[in-house]
Structures are given as structure tokens and as C-alpha cells.
Amino acid sequence: MTELRALRDAFAMIGEDPAAVLAADTAHLIAHGHQVISSQSIPGIRLETHGEEDCIKVRLDIEPGANIEKPIHLCFGLFERFGTQNVDLVLTLGAGARATVWSHCLFTLPQAARHSMTARVELGPDAELRSNETHYHGLSGLIEVIPHAIVRVGPRARYIADFALVQGRVGTLDIDYAVAVEEGGVAELTSKVYGHLSDRIRIRETVSLDGAGARGLVKTRVAVEDDASAEIVGATHGNAPGARGHVDCMEIVRGRATARAVPEVSVSHPEAKVTHEAAIGSVDARQLETLMARGLAPDDAVDRIVLGMLR
Amino acid sequence: MKPPLLELSDVTVETGSHRLLEGINLAIRPGEIHALVGANGSGKTTLARLLMGAEGYRGSAGTVRYEGADLLALPMHERARRGIAIAWQEPVALEGLSIADYLGCGPVKQPAAVCLEQVGLDPAEYLPRALDLSLSGGERRRIELAAVLSLGPRLAVLDEPTAGIDLSSLPLIEAAIPALRRAGAAVLLITHEETLARQADLASQICGGRIVCSGEPGRVVERYKHRVCSTCYGGRCHD
Questions:
Q1: Whether A310 contacts chain B with CB within 8 A
Q2: Fewer CB atoms near the end CB (10 Å): N or C, chain B?
Q3: Rg (CA), chain B
Q4: How close, in Å, is residue A68 to chain B by CA atoms?
């Protein structure tokens, strides 16, 4: 199939091993536009996919108690010059289930494209989900990425989510995640984005610590250069006794780029505590000196610091 | 006698209306360990930062010659490429860089693992670790010293390399300094450790931004111990 070949080529381009994704003991979904190219379930996982004219519907259920050792691969992409991909994802983990989901979003080929994802994620009691979403874009700057998610983290469950878009042009990015954490649950959201030229970045991540002893971390690392802009809202609300949250936002601005960071913290219970830190500006002078004192030219030192922050 | 590797003549450093260093004269020859002692705020770190070319530490008068060249005209990275290395007094965290990355930066001459062993850190444990705030102050200083060793410098500026080091590791750190000399480096050793200062070839005492005494380390240390004052600018330390 042409799309599958294109996908293999795209994986090779970004240094991933397509054989690992397509292995018989690994669950995967591969979608091109609104067409499902390949999907595979394994014991413990129920993966249902349905491609419609204007959307791909995906339902991924991890059975209670299942421990899925190998990452589940969700590969989305477009392999034409122009296109749209809308994804409607429902992901559930039953009580005590554990899984890692790697989402590969491959948009290296399109000149102009729109990728939108609406996700509803439910973690049952004591479940654990590690979600790594990595975007690979080309240099056109006309890619629009709109991931929105509503996540419920059940009692004592753990939700660890990483988002990265540091290769190629961002284009336009609009992340909106809302996570509610129940008693003893943990949510950690980390976003890393590097904007260039006229890229536009908007990230809004909200964690509501609704259960006693719930914990949350919203961590954002964004670098922008040239005429790119970023607006980051990291919000955490402590609504229950013993809830602990932290918002950590760091942005590096180069050239004429602009950035705005808005840490939003609130507590509605006297025994909750939420803290925040935000650093925004050019590269730290002392970090720069530390690397220049090892013989790195100023531009190389700046690159090393920025890429280190986004690693 | 070998000509000086580094020679400062009447060097003055000012920040705004504040004079940080005044009329500094100092020469360090190849392979020589020169200890610099002085009270807090006397100008030791200013001198170190001036030599490395840190932002805001420019000489307003005088000359600094390094291997015969005008050092103050060189940018920081060029000084490093010409063989000057510094172990910072207050090393920074570099999020996202591993210790292996850091020790691999620049014109390295020694493997990172060897340098970590020299300062008593297990390479298997430390090389993959991030150079972040999870490291203690003592660990971070040892990594700074390892970073200097990795560059195989001709001039090593060590700014209080033993501060915060635990007692059991101190002998290793002290041994790393003559190891630098054996590898051909001259060392400007800024220290508050009396025994370390006494092991140098020469020593100078700095007070109120001026070098008030230079010579045999034992004599300089004794003078410093008995005549030091923190606010003596123009006072008896300069007698």
C-alpha cells in the first residue's frame, strides 16, 4: 500500500524503527488522513477504529488489571501536499491497568495541513498511563495542530503526559488539556515546543486537584525565535485537602519573537497548596558563560542551552 | 626562568562607580601553581571572571597578556580555545544537559570518565545524570574541576574548588591540582584553605581590590591570617 510505504519512509526519516511499530506483539493504529491503514490489538487491549469522511474515530480500552509492556503506537499523519485529519479518541484504562501510548504525528510532507484531535481519557482506580506525543513537521509552516483533551484521573491513578514539537516548523499550535485528578491521583503534564519564523504557539493546560492528596505538575518548556510567538497558560487548582500542585513554565525568547506566560493557580481548600514558577526571557547569561568558557561560540552555546531545555 | 604565561600589569576593573580591582600586578609562569587568598569580597572572584572574560568584568585600565597576546581583546570562547579553563565558584545548573554532554563540550583532551574518576565520582553513575539542581553543591564543584581537567588547559583558574567538598573527598580534589600541573597547566588557585594555599609555588593576598602581598606561600598566608581586615581599603593590609 502506498500510504504504508510513505509511512515507513517517514519513520525512517525521523529515525524510528517501523518494524517495532508493526511488530506482532505490539498494538498499533496507523492512519493517513481519515483512512485507517493498519490497526492491531493484542491481549488486554481492545482497539476499535473507524474512518469516516471527516474524522477518524478511535476507541482504545485497556482491560482492568492489564499490564501492557510494550508501548501502544498511534501513528497519525498526512502524506500528501494538502489535507486535513480530525481524530476523535476515547481512551480508557480499567482499574489497575498500566500502559504506555506513543503517539507519532508525522507531518513532514504536507505543505499545508490541519491536524485536530479531540480526546477523552479515563483512568480507573490505580491505573497508570504514560503518554508521549511527538510531532514531526516539515518546514512549510502551514501546519495547524489542535490537540484538545479532557482527562479524568481516578483514585490513586497516575497520568504522565509528554508533548513535544521541536523538529521542523510548528506552524500553528493550539493545545488545550483539562485534567481532573481524584483522591491520591497524580497528573504530570510536560510540553516542549520550539517555534521559528512566524510560528504561533498557544498552550493551555489545566489541572484540577479535586481529590484528597491529589498531586499535579504542569511543566512547559518553550523556545521561540525569529518572529514566532507563544502564549502559555499553565493552570492548577487545589480543591481538596492535601492536594499539591506546581506550575513550572520556562520560555526562551530569541530575535524578535515574543512570549507570554500566565501561571494560573488557585486553592479552594485551606489544606491545599499550589506553587508556580515562571521564567521568561533570553538565555540565562551565566549558563551561556558556562558553555562559552568551554570554547563554544555564543550561537553554539545558545543552541545547546535551548535544545537542552527542550530535550 | 620561563617567561610568564599570564601577566597582569596595573589592571583596574570598575563597575559603575565601584572599583573592584585596582592596580593589579601578577605574573604566572607555565606549570606554576599560584594561590590567591583574601577575605570575602576582596576581589578574588572578580579577578577570575576578568581572566575568563565574563560579561561585565572588563578591565578599565592596565593590560593582561596571555602567551604574549592581549587577553582582554579576546572573547570568552576564544580564551577557552587558547587553553584557559575555569572552575566556577558557583556553578550553574544546565537543564537538559547530562554531565557527559557538559564534559564533552569544547576542545576536550581527556575522556570524561577519566576526569570524573580523578575527582572521586563514579562515571557509571554520574555521566548520564543531568547537570541540574539534583546535584549537591559539593558534587557540582567536583564536576567543575573534572570539566577543567577534561580540557587539558594551559591555565586553570580554580575558584574555591574545595568549598563544600566532604572530608573524605578532599584529598582527591587536592591531588587533582598538582595533576593539572603535571599535565602542563599553570594554576591560579583561589582558596580559603590554608594547607592548600601553602602547597602552591607562590601566593598573593588580595585585599580591597589590590594585591597587598606576594611571594612564598607560607609567608603570605601568615601575613593574611594576622593582618587581614575586610574593610581595610588603603589601610594596614597595604603597608
A1: yes
A2: N
A3: 17
A4: 27
